Amino acid sequence: MSEKPLNQWKTLDKDLNRISYLEQATQYVARPLLAPGLGLAFIAVVAIVAAVLSGGSPDSLIIVAAAVFGAYMALNIGANDVANNMGPAVGANALTMGGAIAIAAICETAGALLAGGDVVSTISGGIVSPESLADRAQFIWAMMAALMAAALWINLATWLGAPVSTTHSVVGGVMGAGIASAGFAAVNWATMGQIAASWVISPVLGGAIAALFLAIIRARIEYADDKIAAARKWVPILVAIMAAVFGAYLSLKGLKKVVSISMPMALLIGAVAGVISYAISKPLVYRQSEGLENRKKSLKKLFGLPLVISAALLSFAHGANDVANAVGPLAAIVHAVHDFDTASNVQIPYWVMIVGAAGISFGLMLFGPKLIRMVGSQITKLNPIRAYCVALSAAFTVIVASALGLPVSSTHIAVGAIFGVGFYREWHAERRARELGILKGKPVAPEERSRRKLVRRSHFLTIIAAWVITVPATALLSALVFVGLSALAI
């Protein structure tokens, strides 16, 4: 009689263990669905807000649909584009993933709300002539198709692990919809030619400048006999260059909404910022370097804080500049619903800006870590010095390109700078290996040189291919979506 209850308890324990395993399995399966679920919840909230703010007008359904796709686009920009700013700092271990996401979310939102929305007129009217889309419905469907196509393409690129230009995605979407609705004559081909040129200009310029800064740091600091003394001399100068570049960069890109600033004025602001930063950083670097050993590893500590600050400033400028990619077509649709005659000169409603800013931040938090890891550590190995060169190059290249009137993409610049640093290290390592081989009488075999490659060729080819096909792919997808929307509207 006493064994029966014991067996019952054993049976109960087994059942409880099964339930426990089932709960663990359910949590494991449900975990990947958490981020998409929260993303859908955000899109649903945006739809409700758009329905309320549209005031129940006859065209409120169009505004709600556009707001949904605008929110989806913003989520994808946060998942893909922001990785270019924070990836190097995370890959260099200057920031944790959580810290990078928090800083980027704050700075992206601040940049979008305080200084964003300057380039919406280009998105809505600079690529396809609004006069060629005389019918209001045609214009609305074209902008809707562009938004949907760009968002879908960026989502696919993020899933594949390829950082692509969100600006080029939107541009391709607008171009494809314009061609489908009004023919090839509707497209401003001069603007498209400049954008095509930026495929080459942006990464090459960014890579060259990043490699140049790394070469200077190695020659003046890393290979000096007294590395600490050299760092005390050169690190404040590099910090001053960073402050000058970012001062000019933010003046041009981040303050247009507040005040109009010319290039000479931006350079003057940058120079003042550089002088002040040099005066502040020189004693700080001296104190920070006290007690450090005379070796390369010690130098990395001196670049940690400047790298974090530069990543935050890049995120602010990105939020100010690229929020238009998320809400440009949305703003154009909202404006066209109320006043189509001036659709090429769009003023963004504040609620639309909030949708863009919030969507970028949520997209970064929910889906950004994958691309941050890829950009920061899977293309080439970064440390604080190399990552600092990448961040400095990203801002410096924009200033140089703006002064020369060259079209550039911030995504292509940042990723190109990472490739530039990696390829420079390969070239430098092979040169030193050849010198060492000559000294020892043992030349390095080609197989050994191949094994020492410091840039992953698979990522290089994937990213280049994604860059090249971004505009054609989004143009084709947008044209198909436009044809479908037009057929449904009939």
Quick overview:
This protein is an all-alpha fold. The chain has 16 helices and no strands. Helix 8 packs across helix 14.
Q: What would you say this structure looks like, in words?
A:
The chain is mainly alpha-helical. The protein has one domain. Helices cover 82% and strands 0% of the residues. The chain has 16 helices and no strands. The protein has helices at 3-53, 60-80, 83-91, 97-115, 120-126, 136-160, 166-182, 189-222, 227-253, 263-289, 296-339, 350-378, 384-404, 410-440, 446-451, 457-489. The longest helix has 51 residues, at 3-53.
Distance between the termini: 80 Å
Helix content: over 70%
Question: What percentage of the residues does DSSP assign to strands (E)?
Answer: under 5%
**Outline type:** elongated
Which residue ranges are poorly predicted, with pLDDT under 50 across at least 5 consecutive positions?
26-30
Q: Main β-sheet, in a few words?
A: none
